[in-house]
Amino acid sequence: MTIANDIDFGTPAATSDVDVSVTIDGTSICVPAGTSVMRAAAEAGVAIPKLCATDRLDAFGSCRMCVVDIEGRKGTPASCTTPCEDGMVVNTQTPHVAKIRRGVMELYISDHPLDCLTCPANGDCELQDMAGVVGLREVRYGFDGENHLDAPKDESNPYFTFDASKCIACSRCVRACGEVQGTFALTISGRGFESKVSASAGESFLQSECVSCGACVQACPTSTLQEKTVIELGTPTRKVKTTCAYCGVGCSFTAEMRGNELVRMVPDKSGGANEGHSCVKGRFAWGYASHADRVLSPLVRDRIDEPWREATWDEAIAFAAARLQAIQAEHGVDSIGGITSSRCTNEEVFVVQKMIRAAFGNNNVDTCARVCHSPTGYGLKQTFGTSAGTQDFASVEESDVIVVIGANPTDAHPVFASRMKKRLRQGAELIVIDPRRIDLVHSPHVHASHHLQLLPGTNVAVVNAISHVVVTEGLVDTAFVSERCDPASYDAWESFIRLPENSPEALADVTGVPAELIRSAARVYATAPNAAIYYGLGVTEHSQGSTMVMAIANLAMATGNIGRRGVGVNPLRGQNNVQGACDMGSFPHELAGYRHVSDDTVRHQFEAVWGAELRAEPGLRIPNMLDAATVGAFRAIYIQGEDIAQSDPNTQHVRAALEAMDLVIVQDLFLNETSKFAHVFLPGTSFLEKDGTFTNAERRINRVRPIMPSRTGMSEWEVTCALATAMGYPMHYDSASQIMDEIAELTPTFAGVSFALLDRVGSVQWPCNDATPLGTPIMHEDHFVRGLGNFVTTPYVPTDERTTRKFPLLLTTGRSLTQYNVGAQTRRTANVTWHPEDILDMHESDAELRGVADGTWVEVSSRAGVTSMRVRISDDVPAGVVYTTFHHPVSGANVVTTDNSDWATNCPEYKVTAVEVRPQTRVDVGA
Ligand code: SF4
Ligand code: SF4
Ligand code: SF4
Ligand code: FES
């Protein structure tokens, strides 16, 4: 694709059902009432000059560049702020309006540097384009008077500059920061000639509240706000559409290139998940792909205390295959297994689980979702019949009440958070259930009406108490329950939830949440026309993670909040392809599409296509593999793109298990904590080199397209196929597209999916098959996937992880906006500017009690281990609770997390660890 700007219609589309007819420069067109004259003209193929207008933002009407003549009307109205009226006749190109536009442009140019030829935006500047369009040939006023040509530059942000001398005060940046991003970091200060863009209270961009989403840079019609990479490398010459490889929002981007060099990532307006928005990670933090730390050749060694030696692909694969075969010959078929990665494409994941089932000959495959959203899989399958969020992201725009439980969307799912905040600014009510005061509780123009600041580990008690209020105060949607749900399961649940022990009053001491607050929140949720629940790892990573997912599903069914727009139960998935990795059959008990390995019909279908006999018994989960390794029963593992020695709980146990194995194969971009225990390192590809698909949190299957050849010389799926083949199971595909064809053949929910379809329509949300050829934005509309919705009783069982005199504080963990997961990628970008280390948040009273001062080093100890980090005194956490992130191996927060886990899925209890915090006299961060 060559560079050409997408059509900008000037103002957002109107949504009215009523049409009006207008004539523009002799062309008649029907548009929805409320459509601006500018937009109607653009839809009729007539481009009206503009500077302050763009279709991502509400019309502002400040530049006067878009004036038009309207027959029967006095003056020359701005077409961007004038709505079409039935029968209106508009002339956009009269000599009169042309003269006005030239005069306006002349004024702009008289206070603008005339350095177009050396400007980084030369050829990609709306001011330059418009000067040409209006036919400006000379500037009569000269440049001697007062002007802004020497206004200072702000280069503080690592990714973009602000050159005030080029600013035309159009306010697009200010409006983008407010309307699109919802941060409101920018204002236009001063009036008239003194007008200028200011970040926060006149601070630099870096010091301001700016979160570096890039929306202002994209909105700026000049080079005032400009990506530093464009300044360095020049304007792009070609572009490729692809998908961000960070979080589960799955934003679509256009990678803009010069040759094979990536110049910038621009969020794609047609992207279903992001509609043209982005966050700092996807927009700017892609430099890790070319970081010098990338390993580009395979590495092997006989023992982990030996240095690595470089190998060819053939040598490394032969080495790995021979060892795997020898281990199986000596210790049995079940002595090896593997882990798939939520960071890889569906196609890459599919071939790894296929290799394990067909070439290794067992079902010892698991995925990193084990440590994040496996309870979602279990809980939603039990209640609704399938393991996925129920809505598309756009659905939140129709919610009247939004409940956020154990999630911090502004940091972890920022682009969805911006969409949610927009709805909240329009008046939707917000209920936050979280031990921390996350940003959403109070942010510009957004305030939670209820913050249920529960004690970590008491989620189930809180949601049971909410449901108790719903049932006992007559707030159940009886029509929905009787039509759509299993009556026996409802009756059992109703009798259980009514019990006095589930009342808010009975549970107030346990949860730490005042009973009246719970009652009020329950009434707000249950009586809203449309109420939606969004949840994150604060729900799943508990010993009762699966119970909590089912408790949420019960509540949504009891109140009829399932099966239409604006409602639903929505897990905010962590990694970019965690949904896809689960869909592809990465769990030891399920083949692709969540079908149990013991189902003969399903298994025989796979056997026929794969030409291999498959085992009918589930294999080992990650914790089982690690436990078995420590007793010598599990000897070799293939780990695709996952740093389990840093990301999994109770690090000492993980390391001991890895150390005990005869063979550890790691496939990744960088040598990491896990590769310290590896014998074979197979270099992986960055998302910029991948061809395939990712599936986001709303089940949207997006294309990932290579913008450059693989830097390692092989695609990851080719490496997996080569290893399977070397082990005696021939596996071959001509392309990633062919792998998707096999996925579609074997997975009913993917039956209609192909690269050709995705290339044609952009993206689809599964199920996508004959019944729904363009996908399914909202699930369970007429009936649940399992038929009738199933209520499950959810007794609250306190976690074994309790505070004691020795460990009197509860540690909970989360993510920051600028770092990602264990930080392997983001730590290798300028994002370290904002989050150079993990910090422990602690309440003032706890700090005082321990003599801990803000910014000093502390030792954090639990019964599992000890680590060190600096402390921040913060009232975002209540007394008794401390909080940190786990982005940096040096602090290794998971050293202290325990091996408690969810009863149903073994998902680790990351969110509750009893700890003690002591001032540290020895500052030894490498210890
Ligand atoms: S980068 Fe984003 S947050 Fe920062 S000023 Fe621009 S729009 Fe606002
Ligand atoms: S920085 Fe750009 S978008 Fe903002 S007011 Fe100036 S010219 Fe307009
Ligand atoms: S919100 Fe997630 S998917 Fe979107 S740009 Fe940011 S990290 Fe990437
Ligand atoms: S584009 Fe209409 S007034 Fe600026």
Radius of gyration: 29 Å
Low-confidence parts: none
Mean pLDDT: 91
The level of helicity is 25-40%
For the biggest β-sheet, the strand order reads 14-13-28-27-26-15-16
Oligomer: single chain
Count of distinct strands: 37
Which structural class do you get from the secondary structure elements? alpha/beta
How is this structure best described in words?
The chain is an alpha/beta fold. 28% of the residues lie in helices and 17% in strands. It has 28 helices and 37 strands. It has a 7-stranded mixed sheet with strand order 14-13-28-27-26-15-16, with helices on both faces. It has a 6-stranded mixed β-barrel with strand order 32-36-33-35-34-37. Strands 21-18-17-22-23 form a 5-stranded parallel sheet. Strand 13 and strand 14 (309-310) form a beta hairpin. The longest helix is centred in the middle third of the chain and has 19 residues, at 313-331. The structure holds iron/sulfur cluster (3 copies) and FE2/S2 (inorganic) cluster. FE2/S2 (inorganic) cluster (FES) is lined by residues 50-53, 61-66, 78, 80.
Question: What are the salient characteristics of this protein?
Answer:
binds FE2/S2 (inorganic) cluster, about 950 residues, alpha/beta, binds iron/sulfur cluster, six-stranded mixed barrel, seven-stranded mixed β-sheet
